[in-house]
Amino acid sequence: MRFLNRPPERSLRAALRILLLLVPLTAACQNRVVISADLARDTISRHIYGHFSEHLGRCIYGGYFVGEGNTKIPNTRGMRTDVVTALRKLKIPNIRWPGGCFADTYHWKDGIGPGAKRPAIVNSWWGGVTEDNSFGTHEFLDLCDQLGAEPYITGNVGSGTVQEFAQWVQYTNFDGVSPMSALRRENGREKPWKVRFWGVGNEAWGCGGNMTAEHYADVYRTFATFIPASHGSGSLWRIASGAGSSDFHWTEVLMRDIPQGLIEGVALHHYSVDWTHKSSATGFTEAEYFETMRRALQMEDLVQRHGTIMDMYDPKKKVALVVDEWGGWYDVEPGTNPGFLYQQNTMRDAMIAGVTLNIFNNHCDRVRMANLAQTVNVLQAVVLTEGERMIVTPTYHVMEMYTVHHDALLLPSSVRSGVYTLGEKSLPAVSVSASRDREGVTHISLVNIDAGRAQDVVVEMRGEGCSSVSGRILASGKVQDHNTFDDPARVKPAEFAGARLDGSTLRVQLPPCSVVVLTLH
Ligand code: AHR
């Protein structure tokens, strides 16, 4: 009131002063993105969008595979039709199998030949259940064919032998006359599959053998020596078992001690989890959500720091960083086997997927392969099944929306993000990546992890002339929202009308907790 009663020029001066004070504040809060299409150089490998499927819980059995004789659940040679149909839409480039921890207990010869003769074993890592080996090498490679995905096989280093590993490669890849190609033919497969991607053990620092980095590097050298460098029509990738999250020493030793002629990839595993307090997959608080986001965003730092170590030994970036396990990890669904790692999947998981895939895209010069853990019914699954029913999750939708980035040219982006604040803590709210596909169409994926506030984003397009914008959005009322077998389409993508193009400036309003993919022509 006093302010209004002042003489007009003094009121004006006071108002101006307040405005000047406010401007920098508003600008600091505004999200600004510059996309430099003129600096584009690197391609986003589609293999960043790979999946991981382990003999764990109901991922393989009940998830993908219901057995050929199953008359209740439609299938092709035992693979569920509904699951295969849904997954084909994700254009899955590669699937990592059979583990995980299971891989270093797995003897592949148990899973070939007539079903009745295959031995039943105990899955000692996951629930102590009986594994009847009805899903083995032929079934996995058939699944990959049905999905149009490349296989990525992890061999047994922890409890296997060099010979066993080398024979597996010969069994799947050798065209000529040899004991293993003869065995393959005996089992009904004339032509080799030519498997390109091979993991040399898994988590050798833990379930894969509790080795030191130095010891594993030596073991790796021996195994890799007997794995041929070609898979029959091109070079084979030998991928070393990598570090857990921030174990930079592990990466350093591998890069230092393994000759470059013996290695094509170094792995890295990072889960967005607080191991001391995993929290419910659906009934979580905002503080728990915030913590998951903090851990998901750590991927940026991890990729940069492991990448810097790799640069020191491999400045030409010949060796790929392969993030072959990533995702959220929560308490199992109440009443389910704790060893089966079955969890629901909410908008929180969509946020993990959106920001993580943006990070991988933006670091595609080094990150050339990655695998979400895991595809069906385990951890951050894209598909859940219950008997004859199947649903897709929010993570599925993000994966589907991001298919536009597969093998597209990365358009480098600089982001000045506003913050998502909870109490004393804050995180960057907005994450972005952009690419141009082979038809010349530009796509920008934007994520707002802020659970309560929309974010206005101004995007400046440099070196790129676009005249129209359209988009799709994945958002929902609450970050806990998810699909269920009774409400399977609660979370699904919709058309997005919140982007405006004005010359080379794009203005976007991102609702709270949303993933948006824009298409620019
Ligand atoms: O994805 C579940 C398990 O997590 C994998 O088997 C193991 O590699 C990791 O510790």
Describe this structure in words.
- The protein is an alpha/beta fold.
- The chain is 27% helix and 26% strand.
- The chain has helices at residues 2-5, 8-29, 81-88, 137-147, 162-173, 179-186, 213-225, 248-257, 286-313, 347-362, 394-401, and strands at residues 31-36, 50-52, 75-76, 79-80, 94-97, 121-123, 129-131, 150-155, 197-200, 237-244, 265-272, 320-328, 367-373, 383-386, 389-392, 409-410, 413-416, 419-422, 425-428, 430-436, 442-448, 455-462, 469-474, 494-495, 499-502, 505-510, 514-520.
- Strand 9, helix 7 (213-225) and strand 10 (237-244) form a beta-alpha-beta unit.
- The radius of gyration is 25 Å and the shape is globular.
- The protein binds alpha-L-arabinofuranose.
- Residues 54, 99-101, 202-203, 325, 373-374, 379 line the site of alpha-L-arabinofuranose.
Keywords summarizing the entry:
26% strand, alpha/beta, single chain, 27% helix, 11 helices, binds alpha-L-arabinofuranose, 521 residues, 27 strands
> Could you name the ranges where pLDDT drops below 50 across 5 or more consecutive residues?
1-7, 19-28
**Helical percent range?**
25-40%
Bound molecules: alpha-L-arabinofuranose
What structural category characterises the helix and strand content? alpha/beta
Strand order of the largest sheet: 2-5-8-9-10-11-12-13
- The number of strands is 27
Distance between the termini: 52 Å
Provide the gyration radius in Å: 25 Å
Shape: globular
Mean of residue pLDDT?
Answer: 94
Q: Beta-strand level of the residues, as a percent range?
A: 25-35%
Q: Could you give a short account of the major beta sheet?
A: 8 strands, parallel, barrel
Q: Helix count?
A: 11
